[in-house]
Amino acid sequence: MEKINNVTEFIFWGLSQNPEVAKVCFVVFSLFYTVILLANLLIMLAVCVGNLFKSPMYFFLNYLSFVDICYSSFTTPKMIVDLLAKSKTISYVGCMLQLFGVHFFGCTEIFILTVMAYDRYVAICKPLHYMTIVDRDRCNKMLLGTWVGGFLHSIIQVTLVVQLPFCGPNVIDHYFCDVHPVLELACTDTYVVGVVVTANSGTIALGSFVILLISYTVILVSLRKQSAEGRCKALSTCGSHIAVVIIFFAPCTFMYMRPNTTFSEDKMVAVFFTIITPMLNPLIYTLRNAEVKNAMKKLFCCLEQHKIF
């Protein structure tokens, strides 16, 4: 069948149609996005100034902060502008690019969190071989794998959507272009595409979540053999990782481990993994990590010496 596409732009329904609520959301999410940018940039600067790149954990933390900035930037600025805009539109090409970016950086973040769990597993369960197993060469290869995995996942999602015909309506009941809301607008049966999309996203989200749960369970069990001081330090580090994993994966699993259907709650659930998680990640890692705190102090001392503040 020949593809018919009469839609050149999509209209977002947005977070709220109430002008007063929209104004409050504008202030709140503008503040949240500022925190995302500043906090994650501070983490990246602290890792660089504190020379923490030698440690695999901070090597990956640096890239996690970078991915958080990119991930949130694909949806949040547009959503903030649309809260006060009369016309909440996005071009067809812009919608496909947004869909690609959200899934690319979202999937990459999932893989980075999985790699960080592996790093903690080796550090705690095989401490004597840690630097040999997780050397710089392997870190680079694992990092490359996270980017390649994210790209393959997102290119599959976009390819499945781009081939569909859109002839109207063009109103998306969301604040950004995601697969399920866009599929609802296609002028054809999307059952098979929906199954493939769910299998693609769901396998990655649930599979990674299960791997992470197993990893941290093994780590927690192995802590019984360690000294009280070692247990305390390991629990502090792993505690922050587990908190991030739960906050990120719980809403992701809810969104993508189900058939091609949308719920009214989807927008608020999406806020968690597109805005709340990127904002909380640096706060969780900083508040529960002595080395990052020390690196932050060093960074601020450095900035004071150069009279930046």
From TrEMBL:
Keywords: Cell membrane, G-protein coupled receptor, Membrane, Olfaction, Receptor, Sensory transduction, Transducer, Transmembrane, Transmembrane helix. It is found in: Cell membrane; Membrane. Residues 39-285 form the G-protein coupled receptors family 1 profile domain. It comes from the Eukaryota. The chain crosses the membrane at residues 26-53, 60-80, 100-121, 142-166, 204-223, 235-256, 268-287. The keyword Transmembrane applies. PROSITE patterns: G_PROTEIN_RECEP_F1_1, G_PROTEIN_RECEP_F1_2. This is Olfactory receptor. The gene is LOC101340953.
